[in-house]
Amino acid sequence: MENVEEKVIKTFPYKRPIIEKGYANQTLHIDISKSKVTIKPVTEKMKEIFIGGKGFDLWLLWQAVKGSTKWNDAENEICIASGPLGGTPGYPGAGKSIVTSISPTTGSVIDSNVGGYFGPYLKFCGFDALEVQGKSAGGDLVIFIDGIEEKVQLFEIKGLSDYSAEITRVLTSLFGNDNPKSISVVSTGLGAKNTSIGCLNFSWYDPKRKQTRYKQAARGGIGSVFADKGLKAIVARWDSVTMEMNNPADIALLKKVSKEHSKEVVALDPKQNEMSTVGTVHLVDIMNEFDLLPTENYRFGRHAEALNIGQEVFRRLFDPGFDGCWVGCTVSCSHCVREFVPLTGPFKGQKVFVDGPEYETLAGCGSNLGIFDPHTVLEMNFYCDTYGLDTISVGTGLAFVMECFEMGLIDKAHTGGLDMSFGNRASALELVHQMAEGRGFGKIVGQGIRKMKEVFSREYGADPDIMQDIGMEAKGLEFSEYVTKESLAQQGGYGLALKGPQHDEAWLIFLDMVENLMPSFEQKAEALHWFPMFRTWFGLCGLCKLPWNDIVPEDNSESEEPAKVLKHVRWYAQFFKAVTGRDVSGDDLVRMSEGVYNFQRIFNLRMGYGRRKHDDIPYRAMGPVTIKEYESRKERYDEQLSKEHKVDISGMTTEHKLKLLRKFREEKYEMLKDAVYSRRGWTSEGIPKLETVKRLGIDFPEVLEVLKNA
């Protein structure tokens, strides 16, 4: 055991309740400023309206903060919950947690979903959700939630590493009592302390490899909030997991639907996306084929070297075996690389374990930077995880820096001598280390694109208009990794997403551009109602979305609405009924989510956001910004101007065509806003109408007050 010093600050014994139909019926509040532990009841009304998971998080956070609360105020909270279906072993993807807080990058509510064992363990320890509020002065605070011995303890543990992987390993050993599988750790690293884009790592123990593994709650700087609070880690301890643990209403139905869905995944995954072999890496090949792979800050959608970071390469690099981030998940998409040796940084020359990479990391820290070396991406993956940095924000942020450098908006005098040209692997890695350590040019880059735009304009004289066009952030959140220029549906999926441009709310790029399942404008607008609502439901219940639409029935294309994978929707309705006892249809699942979704929009409004103007996106997400971009797809754009928009382009300069195309595309995006707002029951300003709020049962006095003052 490493030389760590433990000091118990507080011990709070409690009686662990029996889980009833997926609920512990209580939540845990910890004020670390006062070392105060409180248990709160979960009401039937809370379960009816907010369901669980993200819904519980939002309701608890709403009550804890004010409209004026900043991300680094002590009253800001980190809320973690699973959901009533979370922790079901054997049902594909039933081990998710949802984390919410006020974000350092957006200033509003951020939510991030994550695998690993913590959320289910938290519930089995006796708590449907956890709130952590306040700040610890020392920075060495560890919260230990022990469901076996029925106690919550606050420790000061000195001597822990600043690297998340090491924190997880040591605490798993310290609290595991020779059973490392009983421990799940939430931690971050020094990168979260020194940036606004910190992530949280949620762990589980891999007995085959005798290794702690982790997944990331990465978006919006939740890890930075965690570090600012002086938290070193949160640890949950639980023992065995069975289907009976959730005390489901109908165990026979639960076993039946779990078996059906798992059996389908096992049979069809090898024929479809091979998630259990290559995970989400298969998307690199598909996105590149369809001109959707972000390359050089989203300027382009494909590259001749893209397959160097594609599925066949990682088929060889991944350690073989089936790896799920929850018990019995047959999707098994959590792959890893063993004995990787970094060439830079504090672990230079040492053999390390890399969880991943997944598609977002390969695209963000690979193709989007003009880097097509898998070993460089693996090194960035490893360091981002162990420093506690979001690989999406890192990749998209560095891509912005590289384009600014190549356009002459910044130069070596600003970067500290670094050549930030696209493809410069050494400079990209150096900047990751600088971000994590809070030094040099990396200190600025680590604050995210929105802050970079301010600094580059104010201090370096960079053109704010061009940076607005090419800086791929919206609402303060960096874009995830899809080129959306030719997908109006995904433009709306990013721009209209409540927390900012993250694909987990409305991942429509594949359905729109690859499978062409929503060709009309009306279909796209309808999709931007149904899909965000249904996808929200997974976050309410503690589920992963991949088993829903990444592995689909063989006859799905023949169904009435193949994009929705309605057979699976019906299975999820049965799953919900089996656990909670509530007899629901697929439409009921969407209605559940609608209430929480609209509540979150009003929460944004309360925080000073949530209006039409906040749903804007940079023009690069809609179309080509530069002449080089236009000319790289000249035939496509010329044809659109002449055939779709009936423009005579003969003799017209590229610059003129660029401006015309921009006018048409911006108009279409505004039309999409109108159509989606109308479908959602919002005003033309994007504010939920009073009748919508009443219909959904979220017309609480404080909600009505926000709407009154909007």
Structure description:
By secondary structure, the protein is of the alpha+beta class. The protein is built from 29 helices and 17 strands. It starts with a strand and ends with a helix. The mean pLDDT is 96. It folds into four domains: 5-241, Aldehyde ferredoxin oxidoreductase, N-terminal domain (Aldehyde Ferredoxin Oxidoreductase,  A, domain 1), CATH 3.60.9; 273-478, Aldehyde Ferredoxin Oxidoreductase Protein, subunit A, domain 2; 488-616, Orthogonal Bundle (Aldehyde Ferredoxin Oxidoreductase Protein, subunit A, domain 3); 626-677, no CATH class. Helix 12 packs parallel to helix 15 (425-437). It has a seven-stranded mixed sheet with strand order 1-9-8-13-10-11-12. Strands 3-2-7-4-5-6 form a six-stranded mixed sheet, sandwiched between helices. A hairpin with a 2-residue loop joins strand 16 (473-474) and strand 17.
Task: Spell out the key features of this protein.
17 strands; globular; alpha+beta; 29 helices; Aldehyde Ferredoxin Oxidoreductase Protein, subunit A, domain 2; Aldehyde Ferredoxin Oxidoreductase Protein, subunit A, domain 3; 4 domains; 7-stranded mixed sheet; Aldehyde Ferredoxin Oxidoreductase,  A, domain 1; 710 residues; 6-stranded mixed sheet
